[in-house]
Amino acid sequence: MQIGAYSFGDTPLNDDGSPRTTAEAIRNLHEAIVHADRVGLDYFAVGEHHTVSMPASSPGTVIAAAAAATKRIVLGSGASIIGTDDPVRVFQQFAIADAVSGGGRVEITAGRGSSVETFPLFGYDLREYDDLYAQKLDLLMTINESTSEEVTWSGTVRPALDALAVVPRPVRGRLPLWLATGGNAASSVRAGRLGLPIAYGIIGGEPHRFAPLADLYRRSAAQAGHAGDEIKVSVGALGLIAPTKQEAMERFYPGWHNLNVEMGLLRGWAPPERRAFEAQAQPGGAYYVGDPDEIARRIVHLQQHMGHMRHFLQMDVGGLPQEHFLESLTLLATEVAPRVERLLAGKTADVA
Fold first, then answer.
1. How far apart are CA 333 and CA 5, in angstroms?
2. What DSSP character marks residue 234?
3. Which of 5, 109, 325, 335: disulfide with 79, CB 3.0–4.6 Å?
4. Max CA pair span of the chain
5. Is pTM, for the whole model, over 0.85?
6. SS3 37
7. Which pLDDT tens digit goes with each residue over 95-135?
């Protein structure tokens, strides 16, 4: 089981709640990735958002910088919003990061995006949401699977490629390419039929209820003739680890509240209630907030339902202090990950 983290960048807050600079957010994110590598985490993903509170708008740029400053950690997007980007440029950015890393440590996760701010920002029509994603994913896969630099592709959402060079090529010929979904059944089928590994973002409800989607994904892959190492599942979720459950709850709640107030203003949600947070932060809920023992047990419990091979957490939300983020990354690597391995090895049956 790989254990990791992901972030959209988190803009720190002043004492009065006003945001500090987005440049500081990016510096903090880079520091966190380097720290995660140093303490031994397996994976770190950078998601794409274009807001003041979450300004990691170019995952490939962040990952290329991190690739030069790290030694072993796997780096990926979480996710790249492929429908409103150019797959040629996305591939080139990540192939460059792969070259900088020495090869074999960089992945792309392609998503449609639950936040739609990229559509007006880049001049796309939201009514073409599905078609943009389907065609651009096909182009990205075509580039990735090409056995040479020259790529040929045609569609209706961007100009065709006629034996044009897309360079550089990844060190090992191709990049691991994942499909991201928030729990859409059609996305599970799509990933299975295409033979792509799938990453589920679980940000609410009961995580084990995603198990039927993982089963649907594996059945779809099998029906399409796909098998082997490419058919795999990962899970991303919200969470924070601290020495005690109470500390984790008190550290994570203010940022969670800030984030949900912001999203509520954008999407018309009601103001968040503390009891909703507390319910989701308990065993059975979607938030992995607690001490190392609890978090390890909960990861293994979900693994028994979903059979996923990677579990990674978004910790830095709503102005979480950087020192709490770094401590949580340390605990995740040095305390949670070893406990997960022991539990999976069957050295203790206490995984409830």
1. 10
2. E
3. 109
4. 59
5. yes
6. helix
7. 999 999 999 999 999 999 777 889 999 999 999 999 999 99
